[in-house]
Design goal:
- Helix content is about 35%, strand content about 20%.
- The protein is α/β, with parallel strands linked by helices.
- The chain has an 8-stranded mixed sheet, sandwiched between helices.
- Strand 2, helix 2 and strand 3 form a beta-alpha-beta unit.
């Protein structure tokens, strides 16, 4: 089976970093054409820096990393330093990157890549706000039909929200962009809080990362040590949810996940519920399904895969 050609669109973030490491450790499954950065967890200046730090940590300095949109389509930027720390990658002490940003704008790279590659052969993997993806679709509508699939982390239904009572952070930051993507007609897989809150880094799972005994294993353990302090206090859980690696794990072993093909819409008008993802899980409307909305994960299998792949780096 040939590796899927992917573009990772991201706002690192500790869990973004783990998702990127998983992809870079899995060349038989994913051919990373480039990493496009967006403002989200922290401002763009830091997300593009963090993406390069992660590539260097993985020893993959030939990966193209692009800076993209520094703010949402029509709203002020909201960030999440309260979760990820002031750098976005708080926890381990990692050196500043030596590798340079690739010249050009992330949105243009997405457009050019989708035009150059054969139709239906490039999968987009957004791990943050969907600003870059929506901007590319709006700037170049011809590329929409060329996308193989979008596998994104965002939203929540039964779990509610994690930045407001009803909205998950990635969708809340740029609801209009999320609305544009969900209405695009591209095949979409959504990894919402409903599934990511079942992928918890418990102490034994984090010890397994540390026991890899490499720079990558140690860094990941230190990232999740930092990251989990917020979620354990907030949710009273046994560990922090590893949201974004669900996206890249799905590309390796989709059988780890289960969900339903349903209609998902985003609230873009009400300030009370701005960015809420309304998932017709029980299929009570006649709205056409537009996404595979994931609801469950084999968490032990997920962490076994993650540990095995990270040990390769």
């Amino acid at each position: 089976m040939t590796a899927r050609k992917i573009i990772i669109d991201t706002d690192p973030g500790q869990d973004d970093a783990v998702a990127i490491l998983l992809a870079l450790a899995s060349p038989e499954n994913m051919d990373v054409l480039g990493i496009t950065c967006v403002a989200g967890n922290v401002p763009l200046e830091l997300t593009q820096k963090n993406a390069r730090i992660v590539c260097e940590l993985a020893g993959k300095t030939d990966v193209k990393v692009f800076a993209g949109c520094d703010r949402p389509l029509n709203r002020p930027l909201v960030t999440a330093e309260h979760v990820h720390g002031k750098t976005g990658l708080d926890g381990p002490v990692l050196p500043d990157p030596v590798m340079e940003l690739t010249p050009g704008h992330a949105v243009d790279f997405i457009i050019e890549t989708l035009r150059e590659e054969a139709p239906g052969t490039v999968t987009l993997c957004p791990l943050g706000p969907l600003t870059n993806i929506a901007s590319a679709f709006e700037k170049a509508p011809d590329i929409v039909d060329r996308v193989q699939e979008i596998i994104l982390m965002g939203g929540g239904y039964f779990e509610g929200g994690n930045i407001t009572p009803s909205a998950e952070f990635n969708i809340y930051v740029d609801p209009l962009a999320a609305d544009t993507v969900l209405k695009s007609g591209v095949p979409i897989v959504v990894m919402p809080l409903d599934v990511t809150h079942k992928a918890l880094v418990t102490k034994p799972r984090n010890d397994a990362f540390r026991d890899i005994g490499t720079k990558v294993g140690q860094a990941v353990a230190e990232m999740t040590d930092f990251f989990e302090r917020f979620d354990k206090e907030k949710y009273g859980s046994d560990g922090a949810p590893l949201h974004d690696p669900c996206v890249t794990a799905y590309l390796i072993d989709p059988d780890l996940f289960t969900g339903r093909h349903i209609n998902v819409q985003v609230e873009t008008q009400s300030e009370l519920t701005m960015g809420a993802t309304v998932a017709d899980w029980w299929r009570v409307t006649d709205h056409a399904p537009n996404a595979l909305f994931i609801g469950d994960v084999d968490a032990d299998g997920f962490f076994a895969l993650l540990t095995e792949r990270l040990a390769r780096l």
